[in-house]
Backbone:
């Protein structure tokens, strides 16, 4: 019996392999994160890349090389077993999708927990601002933009953004609310004309799903946590392990811990 | 002729060796930073340490290994020549104090620019809040506390704080103002009773100078940029280069660029 509101119950169900689905909606109010794991030889460059592009890659935690433990954000948690699904990439090619990475673990691996938009979407909804892709039961629409990330070592590439259509009279509030959460992407990077980001057709998404933009709504664009994965993938590191899309790590941190 | 309000003029005077003094008061409104340089083999741990202790070690910029250029915060600047005075430490022992580090530069060195309190002191004074050590022509009083930093790899040690006595009716304003500047230490870590930080006698400083605390003033404590240097020094890395106290790097960033 899994108590979906209790982080220990959910985490142990995930660890035992009993919860295999996406994590959206689990343990409401707790911070969920993206995961990227790289060998130490690539970790310094990746960490620099994250620091130089904090809106796209807000760092929630980084493990000591070789240590799978996440005691600063989730005492007792183990990054090898406590996400429902992982992806193993070798030289940028997807090799496997697995429920545990114990057999892939190496003593030089560094795990990066990266902020995800669930936290700010929760805050937007609490303020009465609708989130279209949730209403439509879809993933957020994501676009590769014409903006370059600040490069770091081997890592370089374009900024990826997610888009949420916001009713005109709620745009200011949406900016204010998300600006309070810089560790989960923060304020929008752009609002209004998609072509300023090099997006010619808002219905043509690069990742996720297309959503309806209604009359009187403004497309609002936030830096997206897919950016570091897309960038890392294009660099084709020897080994990179990520969460499977939607299958996030659930921390013990509360959304409110991330408010400025 | 040095124009003290012009960053190019000041920087080139420093580069030519014509300005050899502390940098306080130069180019008002521009962000000045602490400097720590380490070989790449220690840089990942140091960067992790900084990330895990952001109040003590707010990162303003980190260079690519071997690159002395600081184009993201000061286009055209060179970290080897553009501070007025440096300290060279080998295994934690001060070996030399020099005006340029060109002859010490190695292609594996990584430079960390770390936020310094000048920015928030400027903001406090603009709001009419007095800064006692400036009034008394001294350095800020600094104390080693009983709080441990979050360790990272080889780096571990206590939090060092600076103290400013603030008139009781201005304490709330001082908290609010400094909280807006998380990249230069941010909100206080403590205010009131010094013994809660393990400080038995406020007149006994560990670094800097003792200052007067008047009746009706509250001692307010901020995380201090001396922390990462003190921690790194105790670890005795093979080579560490820092700014000499008070001889900071002056960036092209404006104080207002760091406001949340």
Residues:
């Amino acid at each position: 019996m899994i108590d979906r509101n209790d982080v220990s119950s959910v985490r142990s169900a995930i660890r035992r392999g009993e919860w295999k689905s996406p994590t959206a909606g689990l343990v409401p109010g707790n911070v969920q994160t993206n995961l990227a794991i790289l060998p130490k030889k690539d970790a310094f460059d990746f960490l620099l890349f994250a620091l130089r592009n904090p809106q796209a890659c807000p760092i929630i935690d980084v493990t000591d090389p070789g240590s799978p433990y996440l005691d600063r954000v989730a005492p007792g948690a183990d990054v090898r077993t406590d996400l429902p699904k992982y992806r193993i990439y070798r030289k940028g090619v997807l090799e496997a999708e697995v429920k545990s990475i114990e057999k892939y673990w190496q003593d030089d691996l560094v795990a990066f927990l990266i902020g995800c938009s669930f936290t700010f979407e929760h805050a937007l909804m609490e303020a009465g601002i609708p989130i279209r892709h949730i209403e439509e039961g879809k993933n957020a629409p994501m676009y590769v933009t014409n903006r370059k990330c600040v490069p770091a070592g081997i890592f370089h590439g374009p900024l990826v953004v997610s888009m949420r259509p916001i009713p005109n009279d709620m745009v200011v509030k949406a900016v204010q609310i998300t600006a309070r959460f810089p560790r989960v992407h923060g304020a929008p990077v752009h609002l209004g004309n998609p072509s300023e980001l090099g997006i010619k057709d808002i219905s043509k998404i690069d990742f996720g799903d297309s959503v309806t933009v209604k009359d009187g709504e403004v497309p609002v664009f936030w830096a997206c946590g897919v950016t570091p994965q897309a960038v890392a993938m294009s660099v084709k590191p020897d080994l990179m392990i990520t969460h499977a899309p939607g299958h996030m790590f659930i921390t013990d941190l509360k959304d409110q811990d991330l408010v400025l």
